[in-house]
Amino acid sequence: MNIDQETGEVIGKGRSPRFTLWLAFFAFATITMGSAVSVKKAQADSNTNARWAVFCAAFSFAITGIVVLMHMSPLFSTYIVGTKLEGVVTVVLAAFWAATVSVVANASTGLAV
Asked: What is the DSSP letter of 26?
């Protein structure tokens, strides 16, 4: 196993060193989306907070899934791995996660599980 002495990243493995982080992000996005949808279904009257939580969770799930698939494809990985696009996607997804947390964590919305 070759390790870059400056960064500590594995070299020549064929995958991005952030691939496992993207997989973890995808797993958490799946859990969050499932929870948001089940809570929204359980509520008799769906308010805008519930719809916003479901939208943010579904958006995060979809974009993260696309990025994971792009990481697994040798053709598409050149567009995402180590590029500015990966950085922009990360910042956008972090913003959507923050929006989801702010809506769900508010006790008055009734979404916190």
From this structure: H
Rounded-to-integer distance, Cα 62 and Cα 78, Å: 20
Cα–Cα distance measured from residue 112 to residue 68, given in angstroms and rounded to the nearest whole number:
28
Strand partners, 105: none
3-state secondary structure (DSSP) of residue 78: helix
Rounded-to-integer distance, Cα 15 and Cα 30, Å: 22
How does pLDDT run across 88-113, given as a tens digit for each residue? Answer: 999 999 998 888 887 777 776 666 65
- Proportion of the chain above pLDDT 70, given as a percent: 79
Burial 58-93 (b: 16+ CB within 10 A, else e): bbbbebbeebbebbeeeeebeebbeeeebeebeeeb
* Angle, helix 19-42 to helix 84-104, in steps of 10 degrees: 30
Q: pTM of the prediction? A: 0.76
The packing angle between helices 84-104 and 48-72, to 10°, is 150
